[in-house]
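During the second year of the project, the team shifted from modelling isolated chains to modelling whole assemblies. The rationale, set out in the original proposal, was that interfaces cannot be judged from single-chain predictions alone. As a representative example for this report, we include one of the complexes processed in the last quarter. Its constituent sequences, exactly as entered into the pipeline, are reproduced here:
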Amino acid sequence: MKITKVSKTFGNHQVLKNISLDFPAGKTTVLVGPSGSGKSTILRSLDLLERPESGNFDLDELHIDFSQKIKDADILTVRKKTGMVFQSYNLFPHFTVLQNVTEGPVQVLGKKKADAEAEAKQLLAKVGLADKADFYPETLSGGQAQRVAIARSLAMHPEYILLDEPTSALDPELEMEVLKVLLELAKEKQSLVIVTHNLAFARRVADKIVFVENGEILYDGDAGKFFAQDNDNQRIRDFLNSMS
Ligand code: ADP
Ligand code: MG
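Output from the structure prediction step:
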């Protein structure tokens, strides 16, 4: 998946300035940078929740020119191939955990209920929540709710899972439960794009780091070099110092 020469303006504020980025399949790309730099706007552009006014988007054989009207069929294709996990989980409150995970596969993918439930149970076991299938979201901790949201996303078999600060609402112990699941997915070569402020986690999970500042890409590459003490970009050194 890649975006090329993408610009996005809100009012008269250009928040993405002609940026190009590649998100390699089977890899974990981590976006870091100060608040307000444009990370969420990039992520939301990848599943078309935001529409940049110019630039291109490529995913497999699908090509979208943001300066043209996007076809409904293309929007559906993108939504099928990407799954978004939000900071605030966005679980359906009136559904059990199991129903939260089976809803999409049954309603959108047309899966048989029994098959969807069997897979949902496997996925809940994978995220360590086999015993919570019949619980309602309000009875879960934040870390458990976020793991349900990840299982729900996996149930749709997206090519890419996009996660926008998935642990920033969580206390450190609960955050760890979620990060362990993401590390496991990364190990299994699930394609991931993660926005996070947790640099220790970013360093561990990332195949590739993207540093965004003020709507521009200041770094795009190897995680090791990004975190190296002798990184020759003063802006990045300042950012790393401000976060540690
Ligand atoms: P980040 O995720 O890095 O904190 P965002 O992508 O959320 O940054 O925001 C980038 C900039 O765009 C910020 O200045 C933000 O205020 C602005 N912005 C984001 N969404 C909107 C919107 N819907 N309307 C107006 N401005 C927005
Ligand atoms: Mg954000």
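The mean pLDDT is 96. The first strand starts at residue 2 and ends at 10.
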